[in-house]
Specification:
about 75% helix; about 5% strand; 13 helices; about 280 residues; single chain; 3-stranded antiparallel beta sheet
Length: about 280
């Protein structure tokens, strides 16, 4: 009992040490979650991770602790990334260093089997990492153009005359530019996180998390294009409370698709297994 108590305090001390060492990185991440609407879901990620660890506490407590020196390799990788971040690589490198350091600490104190049992909550940390500026800048403009193209097609099919020039839509003299905020990144990140967590809560099959994550890509793109189409159709829907209500309604509709997609995925998997 004494040894178990010592191990518990060791885990607590290590957690505190990580918080102290990465306090600036954590502060930067929280600041981005607060100021960047695309990353607003970041506040939920630590809460969900804590819930998952608490929910599965009996399972991972039964795993015998096998401290491994391999954890030092992960810790050293975290240190290197933190140094690179401090030298100017940015917040993303520091946040990634935090994730590797957490993994290294788990292996050092509990071993690879414990890390394996915590693999899903650790993977969820990827959803709270800051946006990688290089990748974000590369995908934003193509997504803006895709959203404007799809929105123009939606309006045309609905019988609304629309002219498109790049990322600018002209409907009855009302012009709307599809800005970075309308690229769909916000829908994609939030829906991806919720889809993975939903699959974890309602389905015991790990592959279902991947299936719903993949599904969020097309549904987020279509949903964002629909939101752009509504905004272009009427100036009143392009800003203010009505704009927020339209976006929220579309987002809720996207969430509702997880239920039939899960059922369809299970049916397809069952058919393939009996083929």
């Amino acid at each position: 009992m004494l040894a178990r108590s010592h191990k518990r305090w060791l885990f607590i001390a290590t957690s505190v040490a990580l918080l102290v060492c990465y306090r600036q990185v954590i502060s930067g991440m929280i600041d981005q979650w607060y100021t960047d609407e695309d990353m607003g879901h970041g506040f939920l990620v630590p809460v969900v991770i804590g819930f998952i660890l608490w929910r599965e506490r009996r399972r991972w407590r039964e795993i015998p602790l096998q401290p491994s020196a391999w954890g030092l390799a992960l810790l050293m990788l975290g240190v290197c990334l933190q140094v690179i971040s401090a030298l100017g690589a940015g917040l993303f490198a520091g946040a990634l260093a935090l994730v590797f350091s957490i993994g290294g600490a788990v292996v050092c104190l509990g071993g690879i089997p414990l890390l394996r049992s915590w693999s899903f909550p650790l993977l969820l940390t990827l959803f709270m990492l800051p946006k990688l500026a290089v990748l974000y800048n590369q995908v934003t403009l193509p997504l803006q153009l895709l959203a404007s193209h799809m929105a123009a097609n939606m309006l045309t099919v609905s019988g609304v005359a629309v002219l498109r020039a790049g990322n600018v839509l002209d409907v009855n003299g009302h012009q709307m530019a599809v800005a970075e905020a309308c690229s769909g990144i916000r829908y994609l990140l939030s829906l991806g996180f919720i889809g993975v967590v939903f699959a974890y809560l309602v389905d015991s099959k790990p592959w279902m998390r991947i299936a719903l994550l993949v599904w969020t890509i097309p549904v987020a793109i279509v949903a964002n294009a629909a939101r752009v189409a509504f905004s272009a159709y009427s100036p009143r829907l392009g800003e203010g409370t009505l704009h927020m209500l339209v976006g929220t309604s579309i987002f809720i509709a996207c969430l509702a698709t997880f239920i039939p997609v899960r059922r369809l995925s299970n049916r397809l998997a069952g058919s393939l297994s009996h083929a």
